Amino acid sequence: MQKNIKRIHDFKLPTAILGACLLENHSQMIAACMDGIYRIDIESKKYDRISQHDSYASSAVSLTEHQAFVTAGYDGKLKWFSASDNALVRQVKAHDFWSWDMAASKDQRWIASVTGQYLPGDYKYTPAQETEPSVKILDAASGAVVHSLSHVPSVQSVAFSHNSKWIAAGNLMGQVRVWDVSTGEQISMFESKDFTSWGIIKSHCYLGGIFAMEFSPDDQHLIICGMGDMRDPMAGNGKQLWQRWDWQSSKLILQTNDKQSGEGLMEALVLHPSGTSFLMGGRLRGGEWNAALFDLASGERIGTIKSGYRITQMLFNDQDKLIVVGGQGQPSKSDEGKFPDFGRVESYEIND
Amino acid sequence: MSENSKQTHSNPIDCGSPEHRTHRRLFLQGSMASGIASVASFNALFSVPAIAQETKKQGKKCILLWLCGAPSQFETWDPKPGTITGGPFGAIGTSIPGVQISQLMPRCATIMHKLSVIRSMSTEPSEHFQGIDVLTRGEQPRPPFTRPILGSVVAQQLGQLDSPVPQFILLDPCPDGNEFRSFKAGNWAGWLGAQYGPVRSGGEYSIPDILRHESISQVDHEDREALRKFLSRKFENDQRSQAAAGYNAAFERVKGLMSCAPLFDLDKLPEADRQRYGPGAFAQHALQARHLIENGSTFVMVANGMPWDNHVFQHEMHQMLVPELDNILYQLVSDLEQRGLLQDTLVIAMGEFGRTPWLNEARGRDHYSKAWSLAMAGAGIRPGVLIGQTDPMGFEVTQDAIDNRRLFATIFKALGIDPKEQYDLPDLPTFHRVEGNVQPIEELLVG
Question: Where do the domains of chain A lie, and which CATH numbers do they carry?
Answer without folding.
Answer: 54-315 (2.130.10.10)
